Structure formats: C-alpha cells, structure tokens
Amino acid sequence: MNQFATPSDEKNWAMFCHLASFAGIIVPVFGNVIGPLILWSMKKDYSKLVDREGKKAINFQISMSIYIFISSILVFIGIGVLLLIGLALLNLIFVILAIVKTLNGEDYQYPLTIKFIN
Fold this sequence. Notes:
InterPro entries: MamF_MmsF (IPR019109). Helix content is 65%, strand content 0%. The protein is an all-alpha fold. The chain has one domain (7-103). Helix 1 (7-19) runs parallel beside helix 3 (48-74). The relative contact order is 0.16. The model has no long low-confidence stretch (mean pLDDT 93).
C-alpha cells in the first residue's frame, strides 16, 4: 500500500474504477470489464479502498456481461429486447450510484453481482 495516498486520491481512484466501466461505450465487446480491470490492476496496491472498489466494479461488469449474453440469446424468443433495455438502464443507474457513494465515502454493494474476484 502507498503510504502517501491521501483519502481524496484514494476516493478518486476508486471512483475511476467504477467510471471505467463506461469504456464499454467505446469498446463494445468487454470494454465494460477491461476498463475497470486495467485501472484496478494498475492501482490495486495503491490503497485498500481502490482494491476493494475495483473488485466490486469488475465483478459487477462481468456479471452484467453474462446477463447481456443470455438476454441476447433470448432476443430470438422476443423477451430479450426488453431484458437488454432493462439491463442497460440498471447498469447505468448502478454505476452512477457506485460513483456517488464512493466519492461520499459510503460503502455501496452492487446488486445482482456474482463474485468472481474476492
């Protein structure tokens, strides 16, 4: 852990881990996972907060990718389109909530998350 990390810097880097999930807009295939994964990999030793929040962001985005994949298959029977729209909205809302809570120093647990990284 970096002994010179200020609480403000820790919060900012933790927030960037959540914010990096919007890389999926630029890199549609797994950009939502790759963005947080790169930041977490670079900064996980920076502070415990960054390590914890980065893991949360990665786990949530991997979970969302699985749900989106399943919904994409269900498009062929009609319900998938509604599921994809719902998942996109939930992803946006939950990531924004995580960003705000992290900046406020509050703990936020993403709902619907499968823990792949502990």
